[in-house]
Design goal:
- With 170 residues, the chain is mainly alpha-helical.
- The protein is built from six helices and four strands; from the N terminus they run βαααβααββα.
- The protein has a two-stranded antiparallel sheet. A two-stranded antiparallel ribbon has the order 3-4.
């Protein structure tokens, strides 16, 4: 998602998921287990740890989406959109999209703490991404600007379901 979207679009989100999967497959296709688990010389997380972090955050979003839809219940607002972003929402998306202007320490629940084999890690990532695609597609017809999602990172922050899709993909 190189460009900041002006609005939430289901088809664009599903396309972004497919593109991320293809990029990950291409980037990891020739890696050895050692390369996958080796941290960079300048310090930081290994490729495996970065992917594990994405799995943890992705699963955090999946739980938040489930809770938001359950909370909407029978009063689940319906709309076909458009679901345009406000100035503040666009600023948030710019902040979370690469290239990053600064780093923020990861919350402990999203820090990778296990080491899995390359194939197992990729399987788990693709499984989480398939579940994300399923949620995004299933949200069609819902009012993505009115259903509120609690941030998986900061409990007191809530944002629209549509924005949470783009945040998860960033």
């Amino acid at each position: 998602m190189a460009n900041i979207p002006a609005a939430c679009e289901i088809s664009r989100c599903v396309q972004a998921i497919a593109e991320i999967d293809a990029d990950l497959s291409r980037l990891t296709s020739n890696l050895t287990e050692c390369q996958f688990h080796a941290p960079p010389r300048e310090g930081g997380w290994s490729i495996g740890q970065c992917i594990e972090h994405l799995i943890l955050t992705g699963n955090g979003f999946l739980m938040a989406w489930d809770e938001a839809i359950e909370a909407a219940g029978s009063a689940d607002p319906r709309s076909e959109g458009p679901f345009s972003y406000s100035f503040l929402q666009l600023a948030i998306l710019r902040f979370v999209e690469p290239p990053y202007s600064f780093r923020i320490k990861t919350a402990p629940e999203f820090a990778p703490c296990s080491r899995r084999a390359l194939e197992e890690t990729l399987r788990r990532f693709y499984k989480m991404h398939r579940e994300m695609a399923r949620w995004v597609l299933a949200s069609g017809g819902r009012d993505l600007s009115r259903i509120r999602v609690q941030s998986p990172f900061i409990a007191r922050i809530r944002y629209p379901l549509g924005l949470s899709f783009d945040l998860a993909l960033a």
